[in-house]
Amino acid sequence: MKKRICCILLCLVPLPVTILLQLLASVPVFGVTTIASVVNSYYQGMPYQAALDELFSVWSSSTFIVAASMTYAVAALLLFGVWYWKKLAVGQEFVPASSAFNWQIVASFILLAVGLQYIVQYLMSFIGTLRPDWMHAYAELADSAGFGTLSPLLLLYSCIIAPVSEELIFRGVAFGYAKKAMPLCLAICLQAVLFGIFHMNIIQGIYAAFLGLFLGYVCEESGTIAAAILFHAVFNLCGTFFNPYMYYHMEQPFFFLLWLTVGVLLTYAGIFLFQHGTAVRDME
Question: What is the model's pLDDT at position 221?
Answer without folding.
Answer: 93
